[in-house]
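User: quick one
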Amino acid sequence: MRNNPSPYNFPRWFDPRRRMPGSWAFILNRITALGLTLYLFMHLVILSKLAQGPAAYDSFLVLAKSTPIKLGELLVIAAGFIHGLNGIRVGLTSFGIGVRRQKLLFASLMTIALAGTLFFAYRMFLTE
Amino acid sequence: MDNASSSSPRENYLIWGIKILAGLFILVFLGIHFVVNHLVAPGGLLTYADILAYYQNPIIPIMEICFLVFVVIHALLGLRSILLDLHPPARFAKPIDIAFVVIGVSMIVYGAWLIFEVVQLGRVG
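Assistant: Done. Structure below.
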């Protein structure tokens, strides 16, 4: 099938044409999953600074408060909201809840994700 | 459906259920982890001294280890399902599973060691 996630259809993954909301939800879930897993590895490696003592950790804190790192953290927060809320939709619909209203459910949850991300963006960039 | 996909390994219901259940637990633990570490902390990050003090509460290391276990399980089962969606040949199924188990156990052991190290540093300091 044309949209099968086969390596041979790889270029098709990046083609936004003729996609239904379910397809977008699936793509968003997969992209955020890959991003969050990469972040998990980085988070564990960076936290090793804690075992190296206060000087090593404090130098990390200075870096963590720089704008590029904060932008990266905002991406992680957005990915967390999208993946977590989309995951709730997948869980609910898998048990037959809200199947007939999937589009509305997806749109509502992604609106909450956007609002949550904007809240954190405000806190991170305008109140600190 | 092509012939390759019918003979390639698939994610079974048990693995899928574990992934969903781990995801649910993550939502709970992530909420607590995030509020304490990033929302309540001044400037969005705890200082070194704050972290050592925070980990002296015995509930916290237990909660963080549970969080770590569920996150690693969910993340690696998710990666596995993405790989299986690419319909790898059946002979790759076992090496893929072994690799994920080794990576997962290593991450959990390393993370747990780090948490216990922080607890110890807090007791000494």
